[in-house]
């Protein structure tokens, strides 16, 4: 069910983005009286799942659930309709329109995707607001995972700055971003009441950007250990653990925080451990319990918000709009910087590439609508950015040649456009196959 949920979310998200992207080409084309022969969601080689003719345009849904297209008369595109291009130009054709009109038609798609991304971010802020923990409220410090240990962080530290950037809101991703994108060389922490400066190890960027580390956090909020609810039928229930018990030790070792218990259980998979448990704040019990193959015993810990103050900001529509644009611009800026790091060799390209399977994995399996729209907003901006790259067969390739025509007054020949588009399609197809191959290799 999780895989089905992820697949459906990806298809819905891409459907929204593709339809609106293609509408960004469709409506300017119609405004300039250019004939649009087809408007399709998904690709339809050989047959369509659905199609209907309205006026001069065929609207349809293809059977390959990825992408979409509009076929504009008199334009060299993915259809490679050479026979049409051999005929004399007609007034309703793309090639008969002024260069500036063709330019508007071509940038319509990416313009819509940029605006859509900004509006989605604004909508999220308006509807859900922002919930976060102030860094100053992380009173128990951090619980460090293996990647964080590589940076020299320790349990109980409080991260103050990364480079010269202060961490105001608790966010492990902030540390990663500052190191990868802004080449931060130091991390300032408060440890045992003292402020210390840690040097970021050389070459850590490669480790942080490895594909297998993408979903790993450097650290978490450290929270005291409490049993909120024992899972029905679990090993913990069979052993006699009860709701609201307080675990204070495992195998004669004291534990005070949830992550400490987790580490012990992970080290004792499929074994039996003895818990020291305080019940009703009076009795201390020794409870033997079997650990599962996954390193769990079966209980829900006391949630973090019982120990840490959560801050929440609400935005009116007039506040959310500029904030959404700012958030979208910051996201785009980070993507461009990451792109630059790939070209600089600091990030391996293969660790950043992924197919639709990688994209699906970015959604929440439980179908959280806030996460869904967050991902859709990000994908909208990414779709606009990549479509704007000056690569033949992408919108950016057409824009590049149109700008050349506007500047020089000379349009590239149809034959030249055919050749560069074929090259562009081959490059894109090769990249897609390579990305798919990477995901398949990761799967195994």
Describe the structure.
The protein has 444 residues and is α+β, with helices and mostly antiparallel strands. A hairpin with a 2-residue loop joins β7 and β8 (165-166). It has helices at residues 2-31, 82-86, 99-127, 146-150, 172-182, 204-208, 235-239, 258-266, 317-343, 349-352, 356-360, 369-387, 395-408, 414-443; strands at residues 36-43, 50-54, 57-61, 64-72, 130-132, 142-144, 158-162, 165-166, 186-191, 194-199, 219-221, 227-230, 246-250, 253-254, 272-279, 283-290, 299-301, 311-313. The model has no long low-confidence stretch (mean pLDDT 89). Strands 2-3-1-4 form a four-stranded mixed sheet, covered by helices on one side. It has three domains: 2-126 and 374-443, no CATH class; 135-222, Pdz3 Domain, CATH 2.30.42; 227-301, Pdz3 Domain. 26% of the residues are buried. The protein is built from 14 helices and 18 strands. The protein is elongated, with a radius of gyration of 27 Å. It starts with a helix and ends with a helix.
Structural class: alpha+beta
Task: Please work out how many helical segments DSSP would assign.
Answer: 14
Q: State the total count of DSSP E strands.
A: 18
**Which strand order does the major sheet show?**
2-3-1-4
Percentage of helical residues? 40-55%
Average pLDDT confidence is 89
The low-confidence runs, each spanning 5 or more residues with pLDDT under 50, are: none
Number of domains: 3
Rg for CA atoms: 27 Å
Shape: elongated
Distance between the termini: 21 Å
Let me know the largest β-sheet: 4 strands, mixed
Percent range for β-strand residues: 15-25%
